[in-house]
């Protein structure tokens, strides 16, 4: 789509941000209202105002020039403007007409980057740099900053004068394209007109503090007032607290049935334009602008006219209730009730101290960089400037809500008694240390128990190993030797002429002795083989090789299973050996299947044979001379397993051992 050329300032000004980035063509005829520099110029036409940006710089434009601008739109900081490609000066005329504006007009951006005229009262004047000045002007209850591109020495008498200022409306813009605060731009002091000159400070009547900002006081909200009194405290930031020496006006009429109100403090808080060397006790005269700051009237942008040294004033003795009822706002007071220091911490201005008096919290502020040399828990008497920090409305009356003390120095804290040794902080520290000692002791005990347990396990293992070796030696040196001797005798007996029945008996006895010898050797081997323990599948394979019979086939169906402890594996192997031996010896089985697997978190070991079978309900619980099944049950109980027999006459027997595996 073809882009429409923008020819009015209002169309550029109200262009959406996204559209301004499209570099729309501009052909605008307007009048220069303000020149910021060679790169930025502000112009107005009959509809509104906008801003121009030149690259390269152009320094030959001045307010009143009638120009034709060609270029493209740019986003700007606050609203869109124009990137100029060509400019043509059509002539020169008076600058654009300035429109009257209020503070609200300026703060909402209604006339931003346009010429406006405002009326206000000059408050302060200061140099910005060598050739620029800053004038602060009150517009009703608000104060606006006027930045003048002219040196301070050429300024007219603006302080406390009613001024009419013609300026460019501007302001500070944040990164979100929002107007943070408004201010005015003035090219020269010629645009600042003094409508009503300020009265000489010496001609102002001395006013009572109690009369400030009351109804009916002429110009009480605007012009400066003159106050005389004694300095109570002075701070480096320009704050001065003054006790008024002028008699107050007559008190208000009090209804007969109402209780009399407490007398109000004759003190006032004053903010000097520049810090002055006034000391407590000096009798001074000051002039300043009365404003409502906090709970009571105070003076802002004040100046000291005269000062005379005198005796430092005494603090008013007040109770805690009187401190908080507002009657001593801005006055120098001393609490009659001791307060206990609970805590203190650093702030941006100094230190904040937290006290408690009769269960009521009190905040005090000490304006110094060094930490106060005070112990938490100390009982103190406090003195300082009473400050009403906040208030609340009850009906048509404003009542104080919270008060604090502004300490002049550390001497305003009189320590009555230091904190007891067992303060809350020290008690907590002691408990923490004791808890740490207990934890370390428990840790040490735990480590010792683990060490003892390891030593006990090691000793038990060594004792078991020694006992196994002793039993193995005894088996080898006694039973196995005796069996070897018996075997030799039987061998010798079979060489002699014997009857067939006797020979058969001798050969059967010799075979039995050979089997006993084999079992004895296997037992000795198991007792001594502790250095290289084998896994359960390996031990079952060894077992099958040892009990292999000529008339019985042993089939191994072994699947991978998790590693288990050596004693548990030994019991499982011995149970498998017992079941296999029973199948060969009693069931006359010709085929035995040993199955090992893991299923549902259990290790399953089963020995199935095709022998004659038996009655499992009566014969697995033992009978005289037969203890194999009882031994299997006892071994299961020892390792936490369960054994189950399934058998039918003529259909074989299956022994199943289920061992739960650890998670």
From TrEMBL:
Q: Where is this region: Disordered?
A: 239-266
An annotated GO cellular component of this protein is:
membrane
Q: What positions does the domain Histidine kinase/HSP90-like ATPase occupy?
A: 567-663
Q: Does the keyword Membrane apply?
A: yes
Q: Which Gene3D superfamilies match?
A: 1.20.5.1930, Histidine kinase-like ATPase, C-terminal domain
Arranged from A to Z, the UniProt key words for this protein are: Kinase, Membrane, Transferase, Transmembrane, Transmembrane helix, Two-component regulatory system
Cross-referenced InterPro entries, in alphabetical order?
Answer: HATPase_C_sf (IPR036890), HATPase_dom (IPR003594), Sensor_HK_TwoCompSys (IPR050482), Sig_transdc_His_kin_sub3_dim/P (IPR011712)
Q: Write out the transmembrane intervals.
A: 427-445
> Which molecular function terms from Gene Ontology are attached?
phosphorelay sensor kinase activity; protein dimerization activity
Q: Superkingdom of the source?
A: Bacteria
Q: What is this protein called?
A: Histidine kinase/HSP90-like ATPase domain-containing protein
Q: Which organism is it from?
A: Brevifollis gellanilyticus
Q: What is the lineage of its organism?
A: Bacteria, Pseudomonadati, Verrucomicrobiota, Verrucomicrobiia, Verrucomicrobiales
């Amino acid at each position: 789509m073809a882009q429409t050329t923008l020819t009015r300032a209002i169309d550029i000004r109200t262009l959406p941000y996204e559209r301004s980035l499209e570099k729309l063509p501009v052909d605008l005829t307007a009048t220069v209202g303000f020149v910021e520099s060679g790169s930025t110029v502000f112009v107005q036409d009959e509809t509104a105002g906008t801003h121009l940006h030149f690259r390269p710089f152009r320094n030959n434009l001045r307010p009143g020039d009638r120009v034709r601008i060609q270029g493209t739109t740019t986003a700007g900081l606050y609203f869109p403007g124009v990137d100029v490609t060509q400019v043509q000066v059509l002539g020169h005329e008076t600058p654009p007409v300035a429109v009257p504006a209020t503070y609200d007009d300026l703060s909402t951006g209604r006339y931003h980057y346009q010429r406006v005229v405002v009326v206000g009262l000059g408050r302060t004047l200061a140099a910005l740099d060598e050739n620029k000045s800053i004038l602060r002007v009150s517009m009703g209850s608000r104060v606006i900053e006027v930045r003048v591109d002219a040196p301070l020495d050429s300024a007219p008498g603006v302080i406390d004068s009613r001024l009419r200022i013609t300026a460019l409306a501007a302001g500070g813009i944040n990164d979100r394209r929002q107007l943070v605060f408004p201010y005015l731009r003035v090219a020269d002091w010629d645009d600042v007109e003094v409508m009503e000159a300020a009265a000489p400070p010496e001609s102002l009547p001395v006013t009572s503090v109690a009369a400030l900002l009351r109804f009916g006081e002429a110009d009480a909200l605007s012009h400066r007032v003159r106050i005389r009194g004694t300095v109570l405290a002075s701070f480096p930031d320009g704050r001065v607290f003054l006790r008024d020496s002028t008699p107050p006006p007559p008190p208000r009429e009090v209804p007969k049935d109402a209780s009399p109100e407490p007398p109000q403090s004759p003190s006032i808080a004053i903010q000097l334009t520049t810090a002055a060397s006034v000391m407590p006790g000096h009798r001074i005269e000051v002039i300043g602008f009365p404003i409502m700051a906090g709970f009571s009237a105070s003076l802002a942008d004040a100046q000291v006219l005269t000062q005379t040294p005198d005796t430092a004033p005494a603090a008013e003795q007040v109770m805690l209730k009187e401190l908080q009822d507002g009657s001593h706002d801005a006055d120098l007071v001393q609490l009659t009730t001791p307060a206990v220091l609970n805590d203190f911490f650093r702030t941006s201005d100094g230190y904040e101290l937290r006290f408690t008096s009769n269960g009521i919290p009190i905040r005090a502020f000490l304006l110094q960089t060094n930490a106060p040399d005070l112990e938490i828990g100390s009982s103190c008497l406090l003195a300082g400037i009473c400050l009403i920090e906040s208030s609340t409305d009850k009906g048509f009356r404003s009542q104080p809500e919270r008060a604090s003390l502004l300490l002049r120095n550390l001497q305003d804290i009189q320590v009555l008694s230091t904190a007891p040794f067992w303060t809350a902080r020290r008690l907590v520290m002691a408990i923490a240390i004791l808890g740490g000692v207990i934890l370390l002791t428990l840790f040490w005990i735990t480590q010792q128990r683990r060490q003892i347990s390891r030593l006990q396990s090691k000793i038990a293992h060594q004792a078991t190993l020694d006992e196994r070796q002793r039993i193995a030696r005894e088996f080898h040196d006694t039973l196995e030797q005796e069996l070897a001797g018996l075997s030799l005798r039987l061998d010798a007996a079979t060489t002699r002429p014997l009857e067939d029945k006797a020979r058969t008996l001798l050969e059967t006895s010799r075979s039995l002795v050979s089997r006993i010898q084999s079992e004895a050797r296997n037992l000795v081997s198991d007792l001594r083989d502790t250095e290289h323990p084998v896994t359960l599948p390996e031990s079952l394979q060894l077992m099958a090789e040892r009990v292999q019979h000529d008339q019985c086939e042993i089939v191994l169906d072994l699947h991978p299973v998790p590693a288990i402890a050596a004693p548990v594996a030994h019991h499982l192997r011995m149970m498998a050996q017992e079941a296999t031996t029973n199948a060969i010896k009693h069931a006359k089985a010709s085929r035995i299947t040993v199955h090992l697997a893991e299923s549902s978190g259990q290790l399953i070991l089963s020995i199935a044979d095709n022998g004659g079978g038996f009655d499992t309900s009566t014969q697995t619980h033992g009978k005289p001379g037969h203890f194999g099944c009882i031994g299997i049950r006892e071994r299961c109980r020892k390792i936490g397993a369960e054994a189950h027999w399934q058998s039918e006459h003529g259909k074989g027997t299956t022994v199943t051992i289920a061992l739960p595996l650890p998670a």
